[in-house]
Amino acid sequence: MLNTLSGRFLILTTVFVMLAEVLIFVPSISRFRQDYLEDRLQRAQIASLALLADDMIESDLEKELLENAGVYNVVLRRDEMRQLVLSSPIPRPIGATFDLRDAGALILIGDALTRLYTPQNDIIRVIGAPVRDAGLLIEITMQTAPLRAEMIDYGLRILLLSAVISVLTAVLLFIAVRMVLVKPIKGVIGYMQRYAAAPEDARGIITPKAGVIELREAEEALQKLQIELTHALKQRERLAQLGGAVAKISHDLRNILTSAQLFTDRIEMSEDPLVRRLAPKLVNSITRAVSLCEGTLAFGRAEEPSPTFGRVCLSEVVDDVAESENLAASDVTVEIVNAVPLPTMIRCDKEQIFRVIMNLVRNARQAIIATGRDGRITVSLREDENDWWIVIDDTGPGLPKKAQDNLFTPFQGGARKGGSGLGLAIAAELVKGHGGQLALIATGGEGTTFEVCLPKGDGAV
User: Which portions of this protein are annotated as coiled-coil regions (predicted)?
Assistant: First the structure.
C-alpha cells in the first residue's frame, strides 16, 4: 500500500495539509490570546460600571465583580486622571505588563508562544483601550494560569480539527488519484504486459483514450513504439528466413562453383588461343563468386571466431593481398602500393587482418575499374603510443550517398551495382573483435580513405 503511487500520495497529502495547519496554528493561537485578554478588559470595564453608578459598594459585591471579570484590579483613566476602580489583594508581584493598544503582529505572536511554553502561574498587567470611548485606557491585573489553560485547550481543538481535515482531504485525493491517474496508468501497464507476451498480436497495441493530456501523450508514444517494433520484428523475421535461405543456397552454390574451378584448371591447359585468353576471366569470375558465397556463409554464422593474436609483419600481409588481387585480369590498371615500412610488426590475427585489408582493397579496386580509368590503391601504416592505424587510400570515384548512410549494414551498404555490402560489414566485425574500429575518413571525387585502428594493448611490440 505504501509503495503504491496512490498510497504515497495519500501520505504526502496528509503531511502537507498538517504542515499548512501548523503554519496557521501560530497566528491563530496568538489571535486567541489577544481575544482572551480583550474579553477580560471588557468584563472589567463592565464590572467597573457598578462603581461608577454608585461610589460605595460592599466588599462582597466588589469581590464578586472581580471574580466574574477574572481579574484582581481594575484601573480606569478618565479625564486625565488614573483611578483604581476595583481592587483586591494580589498574591504575588506583577511579573510583566502588556499593552494591547499598539502591539504589532510579531510582538503578539512572540508573547503568545512565550506564554504557551511558560507553565508557571504569573501575575501580569494588561493595558487596553475601553470600548465605546469610555475613557482613555483601562488597566487590569490578572493571573496567567487560566489564560494558558484556555490557549492549550484551543490549540488541541485546532490540531484535532486539522488532523480531521487532513485525513478527509487525503482520502478524497486518494480516490481522485486512483480514478484519474492510477487506473489509466494500470491500463497502460496492462497493454505493455500483453504486448510483451505476444508482440506479433496486433490486438496488444494500445488505443489512446485517456482524458488527461499527459497520459494521452504517453499512450500515443507507446502506440507509435509498439507499431514500429511490430514492423521491425516482422522485418527481422523475414530477414532471418531470407538469411537462412541465402545461407543454404550459398552453401550449395559454393560446392558447385568449387567443382567448376577444377574444370577451369583443365581449360587453362587448352592450346586454343581463344580459350587461353578467356580462361583467366572465367577463373576470376568463379573465384569472386566463391568468395561471395563464403562471405555470405561467414556472416550468417552467429559470430566470427575470436582472433588468435600473434606478431604479424603487416607488409607481408599487404603483399599477399596485392598478389591475390593482381591475378584478376582487367582492362584497367589498378596499382596496389604497399607503403607499410619494413620490418613493422603488429599484434593481430593474421588471417583476419588479411580478410579486412582484402575486403577494403577489393572494394576500392572494383570502384576504380567501374570508372574505366587507371587508378592507385595505397596501404600505409602509422602508430602512436596506444594504437596502430592502417590506412587504405584509393583514387576512385568516392562512395555514393546511399552507401555512406548504410556503410556497415549488411545487404544495404553496397557501393556498386549487384554488390551485397557484406565486405565492409564483415571487415568491421573482424576489426571490432580486435578491440579496434573501422572508420571512413574521407570520400569524394578524388578518392576514398578508410582507416583501421588496432589497439596495442599489453602486447605492443
Answer: 215-242
CA 23 from centroid of its chain's CA atoms: 36
> Is residue 460 over pLDDT 50?
no
Structural domains of the chain, ranges and CATH numbers in brackets: 5-168 (no CATH), 306-459 (3.30.565.10)
267 contacts 221 by C-beta, under 8 angstroms: no
Residue of 29, 28, 31, 35 lying closest to 128 (CA atoms): 35
Q: What's the average model confidence in pLDDT over 187-215?
A: 77
pTM: 0.42
Residue from 295, 269, 290 nearest 359 by CA? 295
What is the distance between the alpha carbons of residues 83 and 44, in angstroms, rounded to a whole number?
13
CA 66, 72, 76, 82 dihedral sign is positive
| Torsion on CA atoms 100, 103, 104, 108, rounded to nearest 10 | -60
Q: What are the two backbone dihedrals, phi and then psi, of residue 199, each rounded to the nearest 5 degrees?
A: -65, -20
